[in-house]
Hints:
The complex is a heterodimer.
Chain A: E1 7-10, H1 16-23, E2 30-37, E3 41-42, E4 45-54, H2 56-73, E5 78-84, E6 86-89, E7 93-101, H3 104-121, E8 124-130, E9 133-137
Parallel strand pairs in A: 1-5
Antiparallel strand pairs in A: 2-7, 3-4, 4-6, 4-8, 5-7, 8-9
Helix pairs in contact in A: 2-3
Chain B: E1 2-6, H1 8-14, E2 18-21, H2 28-39, E3 48-51, E4 54-55, E5 67-71
Protein name (chain B): Molybdopterin synthase sulfur carrier subunit
InterPro entries (chain B): Beta-grasp_dom_sf, MOCS2A, Mopterin_synth/thiamin_S_b, ThiS/MoaD-like
Function (chain B): Involved in sulfur transfer in the conversion of molybdopterin precursor Z to molybdopterin.
Amino acid sequence: xxxxxxxxxxxxxxxxxxxxxxxxxxxxxxxxxxxxxxxxxxxxxxxxxxxxxxxxxxxxxxxxxxxxxxxxxxxxxxxxxxxxxxxxxxxxxxxxxxxxxxxxxxxxxxxxxxxxxxxxxxxxxxxxxxxxxxxxxxxxxxxxxxxxxxxxxxxx
Amino acid sequence: xxxxxxxxxxxxxxxxxxxxxxxxxxxxxxxxxxxxxxxxxxxxxxxxxxxxxxxxxxxxxxxxxxxxxxxxxxxxx
Lengths: 156, 77
């Protein structure tokens, strides 16, 4: 990743250090990173690998929207998010979120907000590959069907 | 002419990622009904619609050149 955009979708492996660099700032006193990785065992069921698909154009827009929500809620924070697509093995990195802030509390809180919002509004899907089959996963938050037919802006 | 995009499970059900149709002037709801009938998309009711990359309501009307995408419940992260 050599680009300097804060919000992106990538079909190549993500290097967390690249995202940390993007949010570094002379006035920041804290940078938090969240690294989402591919887990092998879920409720006793063994995952062999995962495939991520994104509606890339809209996914980037929605990541930017999350960034705007965060700026409003935690002024002074800078956020960078990259999500992977394609086939991933166990322990591969699926998503990295880096947040810098003048003080640590905001960096922790904003980072958690970002991953929760990704799971709500960003059009990315994962397909589980098990020993006995495959399935596109949805509704991890059990928040569908949405009351208004779509997720609301900044409702968290 | 409008463009229709499918993702994840819906893409498997439709057997295609995208298609074009003469459906300008119709509402999201009408296009959904047509797709359900034409392609037997059993999970379409759980999907949200996005028109030109923004979540849309069932009553929204498509214009010529618009892209409507059906977004199954997301599972990123």
